[in-house]
Design goal:
Distance between the termini: 26 Å
Length: 237
């Protein structure tokens, strides 16, 4: 049977697995695949596994239990190896890289920060502060058939939205970065202009959460801040 992999730890990690249930239906006990210096925490991989809420919760519960006792390299949901022997072989083949990463993540947690802004608020600011956009906006309202001007107006607004969102995301990240050891930023989306994950020492978690709260207080109600964490450090594996 295939082997489902939850995490990799050092061989001296306590790996308290009694009572932990793996993904899939019914009882699916979690076990350890050990080598001299590393351990993979695994279970049997059920057929047709999908990201159901029950199984994602089971995966997360295993990781949270392991994180309470030491450094963990968390695997994304759905990672499956051919069998226990192949998983052990992978541990041996990648020993140095796994050990280095475990050392980097020891005592660390991940926090994810997402920030969005009300679109009307941003557009209003752009129109108020850009004379050219304001002029074109007025002109196209008075001249509905002015297609070239409408296209130019749309281009200018798009460019300005991207520039302002990028600048704000960079400024927010810079203010939050001192509370973290590392940062990984994802691409902005239509709904979220900042989506960044921060690697934070466990004993600095409360201070980082407070820093995010203070950053939110700096901005108007047009901004929505979402802080998720502490999480297993997926983004830094």
């Amino acid at each position: 049977m295939s082997t489902y992999v939850y995490a990799i730890t050092a061989s001296d990690h306590p790996a308290k697995l009694d009572g932990l249930k793996g993904v899939g239906e019914g009882e699916n006990p979690v076990r350890a695949v050990r080598t001299d210096q590393l351990t993979a925490v695994v279970s049997d991989a059920p057929d047709g596994l999908r990201a159901k809420r029950r199984d994602v919760a089971a995966h997360q519960a295993v990781l949270e239990s392991l994180m309470a006792d030491g450094a963990v390299l968390p695997m994304r949901f759905g990672l499956v190896g051919p069998d226990d022997d192949q998983v052990a072989a992978a541990l041996r083949d990648n020993l140095d890289g796994y050990k280095e990463r475990l050392a980097e993540l020891d005592g660390c947690l991940e926090f994810n920060v997402k920030v969005s802004r009300d679109e009307d608020d941003l557009l209003s600011e752009i129109v108020n502060e850009s004379e050219e956009i304001r002029r074109l906006n007025h002109y196209t309202r008075e001249n509905p058939g002015a297609q070239n001007e409408k296209m130019r107006l749309g281009e200018l607004i798009t460019e300005e939205v991207k520039a302002r969102q990028h600048r704000e995301a960079e400024e927010m990240s810079e203010r939050l970065a001192p509370g973290a050891l590392n940062k990984v930023a994802a691409e902005a989306t239509q709904d979220t202009f900042l989506n960044a994950s921060f690697l934070v020492k466990r004993d600095k978690a409360a201070a980082f959460s407070q820093a995010v709260h203070e950053e939110a207080e700096r901005h108007s109600e047009a901004y929505t801040f979402r802080l998720n964490g502490p999480l297993p450090p997926y983004s830094f594996v």
